[in-house]
């Protein structure tokens, strides 16, 4: 393993589709919703998986170790994402969560591998045979990866689309996928850098929510909301917890929210079930806001929510 260089994953910058005039200069990949992993394959049939943090996560995914023999005697460092697929073949982060964090429990990891199989989606080759590929353009690295023919029961090298960004984004929306990663064809691989040559484009959904609580911020945000605890009306008319929103507002909006929350404080939780949030403060469920989010969990919780605006034009009873 010492012969393979440690290479930190390159990161994408959140953004929008490239301009139409530059569309043909970009490749588009489906954005996966999983755990980023660098796969180290020294060519002796073994495999080591490292998380974005650098932690070794190989023991958590015993169902992926067969990738080593599949590649054979070709030393390689490959970039990818570990996912758990739903019934429609889409990556489902909620399913994958049951597989994460099990590196210290090999027996439990093996049992979970039977219940929730992992799949490694490969999208870049950064070292191959005896040389680093990081200074090569994306097109050459991609060709090298595809040349390995890595498509198996627990791993794959999905196709990419060059140009046609609008169509690709529409396709992912219709298929219920999270979005796209746009990669400039000439881009080199920048280890550990969040680069503008890789852009992640998420589909944003919006929802009207009712504020039922908040968590104070820390440091300079002491006394101001660090996160809002929001809910939606359940079938019986109660307030069902929908998640915690901690981003999206300006300093002025945060201050305004603090004023509104301060006069609405109550001593009991307004949600049907008390969310397990340390330090929560409860408020009368009368403030309505609009949030943006990427997807929902099976329990209806909002994923990646961000605050958009207050909705003084709506009353809590208007929220279905």
From TrEMBL:
**Domain of life the protein comes from:** Bacteria
GO MF assignments: ligase activity
Tell me the keywords, alphabetical order.
Ligase
Q: Which family does it belong to?
A: Belongs to the ATP-dependent DNA ligase family.
CDD domains recorded for this chain? Adenylation_DNA_ligase_LigD_LigC, OBF_DNA_ligase_LigD
Which Enzyme Commission number(s) are listed? 6.5.1.1
Q: Which InterPro entries match?
A: ATP-dep_DNA_ligase, DNA_ligase_ATP-dep_C, DNA_ligase_ATP-dep_cent, NA-bd_OB-fold
Q: Which residues form the ATP-dependent DNA ligase family profile domain?
A: 111-234
Write one Pfam family the protein is assigned to: DNA_ligase_A_M
Name used for this protein in its record: DNA ligase (ATP)
Provide the reaction this enzyme catalyses. Answer: ATP + (deoxyribonucleotide)n-3'-hydroxyl + 5'-phospho-(deoxyribonucleotide)m = (deoxyribonucleotide)n+m + AMP + diphosphate
């Amino acid at each position: 393993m010492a012969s393979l260089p440690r290479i930190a994953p390159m990161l994408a910058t959140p953004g929008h589709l490239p301009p139409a005039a530059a569309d043909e200069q970009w490749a588009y990949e489906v954005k996966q919703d999983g755990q980023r992993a660098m796969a180290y394959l020294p060519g002796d049939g073994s495999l080591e998986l490292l998380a974005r943090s650098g932690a070794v996560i190989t023991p958590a995914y015993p169902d992926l170790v067969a990738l080593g023999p599949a590649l054979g005697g070709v030393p390689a460092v490959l970039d990818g994402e570990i996912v758990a697929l739903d019934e429609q073949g889409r990556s489902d982060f909620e399913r994958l969560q049951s597989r994460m964090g099990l590196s210290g429990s090999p027996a439990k990891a093996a049992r979970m591998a039977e219940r929730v199989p992992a799949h490694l989606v490969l999208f870049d080759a950064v070292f191959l045979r005896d040389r680093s590929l990081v200074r090569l353009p994306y097109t050459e690295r991609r060709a090298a990866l595809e040349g390995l023919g890595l498509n198996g029961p627990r791993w794959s090298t999905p196709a990419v689309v060059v140009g046609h960004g609008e169509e690709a984004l529409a396709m992912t929306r219709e298929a219920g996928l999270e979005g796209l990663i746009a990669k400039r064809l000439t881009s080199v691989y920048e280890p550990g850098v969040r680069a503008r040559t890789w852009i992640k484009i998420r589909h944003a959904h919006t929802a009207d929510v009712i504020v039922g609580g908040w968590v104070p911020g820390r440091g300079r945000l002491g006394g101001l909301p660090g996160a809002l605890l929001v809910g939606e009306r359940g079938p019986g008319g109660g307030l069902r917890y929908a998640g915690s929103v901690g981003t999206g507002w300006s300093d002025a909006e945060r201050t305004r929210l603090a004023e509104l929350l301060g006069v609405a404080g109550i001593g009991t939780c307004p949600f049907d079930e008390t969310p397990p949030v340390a330090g929560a403060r409860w408020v009368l469920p009368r403030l309505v806001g609009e949030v943006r989010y990427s997807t929902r969990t099976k329990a209806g919780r909002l994923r990646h929510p961000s605050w958009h605006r207050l909705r003084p034009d709506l009353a809590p009873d208007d929220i279905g």
